[in-house]
Amino acid sequence: MSDTDTSTPAAETAKTAEASKESAAKDIPVPSLGAGIEEEREYVRALYHRLDELREEKEAQLTQVRSSGAVGTMQNVSERDAFATLYEDRLAQLNAVDDRLVFGRLDLDTEETRYIGRIGLTTESRQRLMIDWRAPEAGVFYQATAFDRQGVRRRRHLLLKRREVQGLEDEVLDAALLQETQENHGDGALLAALTARRTGQMGDIVATIQAEQDRIIRADRSGVLVVQGGPGTGKTAVALHRAAYLLYAHRERLKSAGVLIVGPNATFMSYVERVLPSLGETGVVMSSLADLYPGVRGVEESDPRVAEIKGRLIWREIIADAVAHRKRSIAGPRTVMVEGAEVTVTPKMIKRGLERARATGKPYNEARATFVKVVVKEIAEKLERQLQKSSAGNDADRSYLVEDVRTSRDVRVLLNLCWLPRTPQNLLEDLFSKPGYLADVAPSLSEQERALLRREPGSPFTLADVPLLDEAAELLGDLDETAGREEARQKAMREKDLENAKKAVENATAQLEEMGIEGFLNADDVVALNTESGPALTAAERAGVDRTWTYGHIVVDEAQELSPMQWHVLFRRCPLKSFTAVGDIAQGSSPSAAASWQEALEPFAADRLRIEELTVNYRTPRIIVDLAERVAAANGLDTTSLRTVREGEHEPVIEQVEESELVTATTEAVTAEQKRLGEGLVAAIVPERLIGAVREDLIATFGKRVGRGAGSMTQDVVALTAEEAKGLEFDAVVLTEPAELLDEARGRIGSLYVALTRPTHALRVVASRELPAGFR
Ligand SMILES: Nc1ncnc2c1ncn2[C@@H]1O[C@H](COP(=O)(O)OP(=O)(O)OP(=O)(O)O)[C@@H](O)[C@H]1O
What's this model's pTM, rounded to 2 decimal places? Predict the structure, then answer.
């Protein structure tokens, strides 16, 4: 296809007919039911050939569109940018799905064969080569069982390494077929995935999604879906695949509104960041709870009591009162100087301004603009009357007076005294550094609680401050009253440009489809991608920097940790209340962690709550889960007993050492695990107090192989606190001084339970103190 093709419609039709005759002859033969690995390899090569072809086409189109001022029917720069964005997006998607492009094959009762892969692919002549895993026709690949075949005779897993088929795994569901074909047995695709070495970066599970997970992934978008599941049951994996599924099934709506994925911290976000791109989806916003307020990264709140207080919903009222508190009239008349003239401002004049501003119903800073306008006008009129009087009725034009009043220093001071312009940051800073102010607006907090909140001005904002900043921003509104107008003007201009772009894309849609790949952006998507902020920013990028952006869906991981205020902020960002929240009530360790999902979500979505449960642990072997469950039970934590996929080969090892040896013993334990595994990722989970020393000691032994947080491919040793280990997993874990981890969490067993369930293969405990109950 060429954007500059000027052939007549008749000539075009003739050409297309010829082309499809030619390509029909080139239909790619689908390997038969009895096909072995060589035939499958050939087919997979054909799939990659098609992928490469599409990629080349896209690259050529992109080069062409970039190098030309205006192409074909495109009339302006905006159109060109829209096309460039479209091609770049598609190219990024085609590149992202290269690794293990295809993973499944279905043979059906109808004799139809379907290949299942990361995206849908068709030839130019519309032969369907591969189906997107999210398409309805692919659903049976995950759902069919021997008891409920759903028309499936055989499910075949194609095990690829990069582009190469390395093996086949067959599950024959139709008994009659067992006689006819030779089954390919192996380790099992699922087991192979589960025992594979960890890299420090989460991978997708698209090839081996299990039926109970698939049902959740494809569940209806509306309402709040809570997925409760013990450690390692695939909650994070399911949440991310669900985001990809929803983007596929509701592309129109979600591509422009965006999907937000929220996780507990930056380490976790970088652990999961590659999953969605590997599924061909890039249009999501990922944010940790600390980053939800643009421009601020909340630091850890060091006192859990403070975090708990700041998590309460009463802050909606406290902040509303704090905002209202800074509006007041004056006690008596005040004289101000305007360009050498004295004017007396009366409380009545101020009151009229306050009332008019209040009547606008706008947020604080925006209503202040009305207040300023009204009072300035009142003063100017009074001044004019005075001048008229003193110049004996001289009716000269005195329209300049308004500007004189506005710029008078006295007037500005007076206006600020009555109605101070505020930012969320300075409002919070005042609340926490001025005890009198807090006492006035937060009578519901005890004196002791207020004392705990006290801090010096200039202290960094914390994780627990983030929702309070957001609440304040909502009530304060935009500080710069002119910003909105300029934005509106630019928006109108862009809308006009984009209407043209949309027309151009529509013209080309038919041709785009012929490129043979499903799920292309349509004209609306292109417009949506470009509206308001120009072609350089995608919807996701714009949403990420805009606090007031409302999303089409929000996914929350480790949702049990959220405080009521954090939920409050998230619900504001999705007025549709379309949520997927995954977590484990038993793993709760934050001071605001909820005791039940109902309790956590009732204030926001009582009638829209659905709870699903995942019950199989895919990560941790039985022998380690047994220990974790024993420790949990002995410490009064109520966990549902998990089924596990693997028994495990390595019994947990417990070493008792002297206090002074803790650090070196940790390094030795890491070394021992490294040796035992041969290759893989080993984590030392240690108390906060020891993290620095352990890291240093590990670096002395392992050098650059040591990383903190989610390691990259080259880092195979990491040292973290229990809090940081949340949601992550490692081939082996060395757990240092569990009794201290329990102290750190003020006796809450949740984070120790989390630490014990991180390994995929082995666990070693190093302790100097007495072990918490349940370890022996
Ligand atoms: N169907 C599956 N196929 C292959 N691997 C899977 C499957 N389901 C889960 N896993 C793997 O199991 C591990 C645990 O999954 P995940 O991290 O999503 O669990 P989780 O429930 O979020 O755990 P936690 O609550 O302990 O953080 C991951 O390595 C994931 O890739």
Answer: 0.82
